[in-house]
Specification:
The structure holds 2 protein chains of 2 kinds.
Chain A (H helix, E strand, L loop, with lengths): L15 E5 L9 H5 L5 E12 L8 E12 L12 H5 L5 E5 L5 H9 L4 E3 L14 E3 L21 E4 L9 E4 L2 E4 L7 E4 L2 E3 L9 H16 L7 E2 L7 H4 L7 E5 L6 H7 L9 E5 L10 E3 L6 H7 L6 E3 L9 H15 L6 E6 L4 H9 L6 E7 L7 E3 H6 L4 H14 L8 E4 L8 H10 L4 E4 L1 H6 L27 H4 L4 H23 L15 E3 L2 H7 L2 E2 L2
Parallel strand pairs in A: 11-21, 12-13, 13-14, 14-17, 17-18, 18-20, 20-21, 22-23
Antiparallel strand pairs in A: 1-4, 2-3, 5-19, 6-22, 7-10, 8-9, 15-16
Helix pairs in contact in A: 4-15, 9-11, 12-15
Chain B lengths: L3 E10 L1 H9 L9 E9 L10 E7 L1 H14 L2 E6 L16 E8 L9 H21 L3 E8 L1 E7 L2 H7 L11 E7 L16 E3 L2 E7 L4 H8 L14 H13 L5 H7 L4 H6 L3 H10 L9 E6 L5 E5 L8 E5 L2 E5 L2 H7 L15 E5 L5 E5 L1
Antiparallel strand pairs in B: 1-8, 1-14, 2-7, 2-8, 3-5, 3-6, 4-5, 9-10, 10-11, 11-12, 12-15, 13-14, 15-16
Helix pairs in contact in B: 1-10, 2-3, 6-7
Classes of the chains: A alpha/beta, B alpha+beta.
């Protein structure tokens, strides 16, 4: 009997097992070549076969060495279930199959004495999302006629920038008309209420990032949708900084301050002002854990943009030089406002947490009126590399936190003075328009979305542990890798087209939801048009309960 | 659908005209109430133009309480009038025991007070009275303002007219501006405060329709001024926005339309004052209305105007004849009150328009 080592990692421990059929396989090698994780390899197996060469049975045993595709059993080179092998196999001879009895993450930790890391998604199912427990109702069909979604005109714009209370607008009366008196006013732009969330040029492949930038420009210039894209931390290519397309980009500065040297140095050459500045304090998934770009993803162009050597790049969980909200207002907002001559709105992004309301209140009461937006990111937001424990077990859901902030502002009569933007798992079930509408009705001025863009680009991962290899730099579809071979799998034009098309459908669907409640502009705070069949949800969010 | 109406005339008009105006539009209302505001008063009130008049429906106890409070504050009653009541069992009406219209002299300490202080005092007093009387259902204070009388009652408008003897013309009870509505608010319980027109510091507003942005409007208005209370009707918001824009922010009336139904961004950009409009839109997005409604308003100087939601989902028509202008929901009302007019000159206010009737009955049509 062979020696059995029960403490070694075995195929049965892995999350995914390769289901392979020797009979169908032609040994073309496509699957092995395509697997970025090197989780499969060509090998030889000894086969015993009983044959008979005569009409009457004269059995004899033959042994043959046959070439096969084998799965590797390794804590580094293991199958992530991405299914790329299945995609490239001409004969459907191979596919990954989920192993329900996996013990991989336990084995991983016990072998490497290291937390298990993966990219992208919270894989711990927490049940139906709150947003899915809310429906769009309407006030009445008789007294309150709905609009015709295809015939009426709709104003689908949201504010980005600090909004002054009406009695503080420096109006003067000239010939019976109101005119703005000269002076510096908080900059404010009206933009599309759905923006592409902050994903950095280091986290994404350059082709993916470029595809999003192309889609954004196309949406603005050809489709008339003023969609903005947030650069994410990590810098922007100089070519874009100097181009006229910069106005569609919201530049982000996070705690790593990556890429800002180049941005600041390029300022004198900018033709256009950026669409905004977003100061990121935290992100929804893994709040308090900071960002992590592993050295393997720090390709030479990333090193150049960020001005760093090839090393793990950590964005600390907060801006280390800051002590308080007041200080961040003083230092960061004033710095960035003045850098762009007070002409570019500067907003802040924090993770949804128990102190979100405190921070928001503090910013609302800021006497200088300079904070131009409050971006709130919930537990399902954020991608990138992280310890699994952070991804699955930290963070707050977005909906109630956003609602809390809105109600806090309403309580003080300061609603909309600092536009609220929310994200974190929006579009997770495929329909971003419905999620956006509900968030807006609960008090958001707009929403931002990131992961959905990856799915539009062909991301094969999901929230059940499929792929989730964004941290490895080996994204099998070229979205979150800097590996030139893998990146080429991404068709830039096709990705841009998908994103544009999705936005166009979101625009139609949003109108389809605005129409029945009789709104021709965004229904910010119109929670009276929402209902929930879940009493707890209705009570918590202060919306109608219907059953 | 509500029916509303307004009469503005160079001569003093008796409220029977307003009742006639509303009766012909009877099909549109549910006979649950009648309410009217009379401004620029004639008859027995003509000599007291500068003194505040308290319009109140109350119990005996409520009356005593109100008088105590006012006297304590230093107000001195100058004149009191109660309409003659014609009670009959078959009348469909839920009356209060007393209806009083009392003219007061300001407290002595306010003799040389600036106008603004006096105005704030009147609001404070009305709120105080309302608050105290509300506790035990002892009374309802509709207005406390110079040259203004408000009457609101629950019941069939026809019967309410009979009860108060309003069907018979009477030179002693007249006004140059009368606004009226024949209906309670369907969205809420029938309460005395809920009926239009709504009045605050010389401003009157009444609406035919709903306010889909009621929740938003209300949440925002709550904190803007002490007088923005009640919200018994979703249409009350229209009055508060009018008051806020014109009285508190001191913007010209044309910006009322810009605040409640802002121009689409594309059109805003084409205008000379586009930048100002953009600021208004961003700062006052919570005061927007999205219809469906048409609004009739009166300013403290007697200017009457009409405007609609941006989709023009509710009807309104304006007719003129011999020194009288009538605005109402249905043309049948004007036919009744101004039968001799040239109906071809009637104005149907458009969705981007504000129609303004000045005190010399000049009609101005402002395009937004």
């Amino acid at each position: 009997m062979a020696t059995m080592r029960v403490n070694e990692i075995s195929r049965d421990d892995l999350d995914w097992q390769i289901n392979y059929s020797t009979e169908r396989c032609t040994m073309c090698g496509s699957c092995v070549a395509a697997c970025p994780f090197e989780a499969i390899e060509a090998g030889m197996e000894k086969r015993r076969k009983v044959v008979s060469d005569y009409l009457t049975p004269e059995p004899k045993v033959e042994f043959k060495a046959v070439p096969v595709i084998k799965q590797k059993v390794d804590v580094y080179k293991f199958c992530r279930g991405c299914g790329v092998c299945e995609r490239v196999c001409p004969n459907t001879a191979i596919k990954p199959v989920r192993n329900e009895d996996s013990r991989f993450t336990i084995k991983y930790r016990s072998i490497l004495a290291d937390p298990y890391k993966r990219g992208g998604r919270a894989n711990l199912s927490t049940g139906v999302r709150t947003l899915d427990k809310i429906r769009v109702g309407r006030i009445s069909q008789m007294t309150d006629p709905s609009l015709d979604a295809s015939r009426h005109t709709f104003d689908m714009l949201a504010p980005f920038g600090r909004i002054l209370p009406a009695d503080q607008i420096p109006f003067v009366l000239e010939n019976g008309k109101l005119k703005i008196d000269s002076g510096v006013l908080p900059p404010m732009n009206w933009i599309y209420p759905v923006i592409i969330g902050d994903m950095s040029i280091g986290a994404l492949s350059w082709r993916m990032w470029e595809a999003m930038a192309i889609a954004t420009a196309y949406l603005n210039e050809e489709c008339g949708l003023p969609v903005r894209m947030c650069s994410g931390e990590g810098g922007v290519p100089i070519r874009l900084l100097k181009s006229k397309f910069l106005k569609y980009t919201i530049l982000q500065i996070a705690s790593g301050h990556f890429g800002w040297n180049r941005i600041i140095n390029t300022m004198p050459y900018m033709q256009e002002l950026p669409g905004g500045v977003l100061i990121k304090i935290g992100q929804g998934a893994k709040p308090g854990d900071g960002g992590l770009l592993q050295a393997k993803k720090v390709a030479s162009h990333i090193q150049e943009i960020r001005g760093v050597p090839k090393t793990d790049l950590l964005s600390p969980p907060n801006h280390q030089g800051l002590y308080s909200i007041e200080e961040s207002v003083q230092k960061m907002f004033l710095t960035f406002n003045s850098a762009f001559k007070f002409k570019v709105p500067v907003a802040i992004k924090v993770a949804a947490s128990s102190t979100s309301v405190s921070v928001y209140n503090n910013l609302l009461r800021d006497p200088y009126n300079i904070v131009g937006g409050f971006f709130l990111d919930g537990i399902l937001g954020g991608t990138g590399a992280a310890n699994e424990v952070s991804l699955d077990h930290t963070g707050h859901p977005i909906v109630s936190k956003l609602r809390d902030c809105y109600l806090a502002a309403t309580h003080q009569g300061k609603q909309s003075q600092i536009p609220l933007w929310g994200a974190g798992g929006l579009g997770q079930t495929g329909n971003l328009a419905a999620d956006a509408f509900k968030m807006i009705a609960l008090g958001a001025n707009g929403v931002f979305t990131g992961k959905l863009m990856l799915q539009l680009a062909g991301c094969v991962g999901n929230d059940h542990g499929k792929c989730n290899a964004c941290n490895t730099g080996l994204c099998p579809v070229g979205i979150t890798t800097q590996n030139p071979t893998l990146v080429k799998r991404l068709d830039i034009d096709r990705v841009a087209e998908n994103i544009v098309n999705y936005f166009l459908s979101v625009d139609s669907e949003l109108k389809k939801l605005l129409a029945p409640i009789g709104n021709s502009s965004l229904p910010v705070g119109r929670s009276d048009c929402l209902i929930s069949e879940d009493k707890a949800v209705a009570d918590r969010l202060k919306i109608q309960y219907a059953c | 659908m509500c029916r509303i109406g307004a009469i503005k005339s160079t001569d003093y008009v008796h409220p029977s005209k307003a009742l006639l105006l509303m009766r012909s539009q009877q099909k549109g209302h549910d006979n649950s109430g009648f309410a009217m505001v009379m401004q620029d008063l004639g008859g027995r009130f003509a000599d007291y133009k500068d003194l505040p008049i308290l319009s109140m429906a109350c119990t005996d106890k409520g009356m005593a309480t109100a008088e105590d409070i006012l006297h304590k504050e230093g107000f001195v009653r100058v004149m009191q009038w109660s309409p003659e009541i014609n009670f009959r069992d078959e009348l469909n009406i839920e009356p209060m025991p007393n209806y009083v219209f009392q003219v007061f002299q300001y407290p002595r300490s306010f003799k040389y007070a600036p106008q603004e202080e006096k105005e704030e005092l009147l609001v404070d007093m009305r709120l105080k009275l309302r608050n105290v009387l509300e506790e035990n259902d002892d009374g309802y204070v509709y207005s406390f303002w110079p040259d203004v009388i408000t009457l609101k009652e629950i019941g069939d408008p026809q019967d309410i007219g009979t009860y108060f003897g309003l069907w018979k013309e009477d030179r002693d009870f007249t006004a140059k501006v009368i606004t009226a509505q024949c209906r309670q608010n369907t969205n809420y319980d029938i309460v005395r405060y809920a009926a239009h027109p709504f009045f605050l510091q010389g401003y009157t507003a009444l609406a035919n329709g709903e306010n889909t942005f009621y929740e938003k409007n209300k949440n925002f208005q709550n904190g803007l001024y002490k007088g923005y209370i009640g919200f018994e009707s979703d249409s009350q918001c229209f009055l508060y926005t009018l008051h806020y824009i014109h009285k508190i922010l001191k913007w010209p009336l044309e910006y009322y339309k810009h605040a409640i139904t802002p121009l689409p961004f594309e059109e805003m950009a084409k205008r000379e004052d586009g930048e100002a409009l953009k600021f208004i839109r961003s700062s006052l997005s919570n005061l927007e209305i999205n219809g469906p409604n048409t609004i009739i308003g009166v300013l403290p100087d007697g200017t009457l105007f009409n405007t609609c939601d941006a989709k023009k989902l509710r009807p309104t028509v304006i007719g003129r004849h011999n020194g009288t202008v009538v605005m109402t929901s249905e043309v049948s009302g004007i036919n009744e009150v101004l039968p001799g007019r040239n109906w071809e000159e009637d104005i149907y206010t458009s969705e981007r328009e504000t129609v303004v009737i000045t005190n010399n009955l000049e009609v101005q049509r402002w395009q937004q």
